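Fold tokens
===========
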Amino acid sequence: MHPSAPRPPRKRVPEERRLVAGNEDPSTLPSRRADGSWFRDGFVPQRTTTKQGKSKMSTSALTVTLRAHTRKSHARKLRRAGRIPGVIYGPKIPTYPIEIPAREFERMIHHTRQRLFDVGLQNNGETESFKVVIREIQREIIDRKILHVDLYAVDQEKPMTLDIPIILTGSSPGVAEGGLLHELRRDLPIRCLPKDLIEEIYVDISNLGVGQTIHVSDLNLPDTVECLESADTPLVTVAKKETEAVATEEGEEETAEPTEGTAE
């Protein structure tokens, strides 16, 4: 290369390669999964489904560490290192500033429908466990990268309120006959104890014909779960196609016009 020629930009070496090439304690090195990704902190997704068709809430494990500093400059360094600054708080614990492994957290929220998570907080060689829900995720406006996370440690003996997604199952005969399926609600607010929390609410549309509607009163929720919407709230319906309705109205108008002419 000519001395006056500009140097090409240096390629940024991923953190896992820098660690492997360095002299860090092997016990702290990241591990490689079967899919080739690296991780430090464990995450084990679990899911169970009850015979009644309601998806019972299981929990995912995530390990976080206590954050030493709360300055903005330190938060930026954490994000560059693949960590997310956050807090964990609740009615029975103080507010802890924490740092979360970004890759594990992204995978957890993108590949599970769960609302309740097991979190292990590492502090001075000890681990304290909490069951938490995500209260808030702050993201950048353009690239949507996570900037900050608020985790709420729930009280195991106190009912909690959450919005649970609705999942439609089966095939509607009304749609097969040419009707249009309208999902009127995507989720429902429920209240229950953390141990009774469900993951999804299944709505069977196998017997839903044209002009029929399924309401909250038609759901088969567990006795330990209370739906906060009224029983007559509609969830899904099958309606006639608008073209058929318009054609019917036009046909009626055409039939009525000659009658007026005859009367004149």
